[in-house]
Design goal:
Strand content: 25-35%
Number of strands: 13
Shape: elongated
Radius of gyration: 20 Å
């Protein structure tokens, strides 16, 4: 059943008004008819099966049939601070990271980021990123759409980190060392409902200055396995590990 995330102000009693791109998708792409059922998600995370009652130009009305009791969010809140990678690799991280349960994405410009964006391009990219995570949330039946913050610098990411229970950064030097802190060992100490921020560097990794800055601000370096991962792989490795640890291993 097709799922749509509908703004809170369009919910009135038992009737929902759907406009914009979602209305176009319902009428022109899916070609739904009156009487067909869809799933509508409220911003608070609740979802309901709804029956289409009116198709009028670019507006769709649907009545709530029943509320769903599904819950597909990770038991911990995970934010991915991703240094800007080359080409469209960040879009891949946003799409797949949403499917794997990330709660928030914080793109940032690192010292070794090859990509350099001006303010105009950042604004244009942010709109596209929001569209990507919304569509990925619908496809993967998420209860909520992850937030995507504007692109910023590492110092700003560190400042945001003060609001999290656990602050980590994937550091390739940890993969090379004889004595290291693994992601698995960190996850064993984290409780449900805690918040985690993990920073992922660019293709060239974090500079020594950036690594020292992160450590000085209570970010813990972690190893993501014994191999050196690509920038776009590291975030997905982290999210998959977190999902397995909290949603599969602890439930087995």
């Amino acid at each position: 059943m097709q799922r749509y995330f509908v703004p809170a102000h369009t919910w009135a009693d038992k009737t929902i008004k759907i406009t914009g791109d979602d209305a176009h998708h319902i009428m022109r792409v899916m070609r739904f008819q009156v009487g067909d059922e869809i799933i509508c998600n409220h911003p608070d995370g609740q979802a309901a099966i709804c029956k289409i009652t009116i198709l009028d130009n670019q507006v769709v009305f649907a009545d709530i049939v029943s509320w769903l009791n599904d819950h597909t969010e990770l038991p911990v809140n995970v934010a991915i601070a991703q240094a800007l990678p080359k080409s469209d690799k960040l879009e891949w991280v946003l799409q797949k990271g949403t499917e794997l349960g990330a709660n928030c994405f914080l793109p940032f410009q690192a010292a070794r980021s090859i990509v350099k964006w001006d303010e105009k391009r950042k604004d244009k990219k942010l709109k596209r990123w929001h569209k990507i995570v919304k569509e990925a949330s619908e496809q993967s039946h998420r209860n909520k759409i992850p937030t995507v913050e504007p692109c910023r610098g590492l110092k700003e990411v560190i400042e945001v980190g003060k609001n999290f229970d656990v602050m980590l950064f994937a550091y390739e030097e940890e993969a090379k060392a004889d004595h290291y802190q693994s992601l698995g060992s960190v996850l064993q100490r984290i409780q449900n409902r805690q918040s985690i921020l993990i920073c992922i560097g660019p293709e060239g990794g974090f500079s020594n200055e950036e690594a020292n800055m992160l450590k000085e601000n209570k970010f813990k370096p972690v190893r993501l396995g014994p191999r050196i991962l690509r920038a776009e792989t590291a975030a997905l490795y982290t999210l998959a590990s977190i999902s397995y640890h909290f949603e599969e291993m602890r439930c087995s």
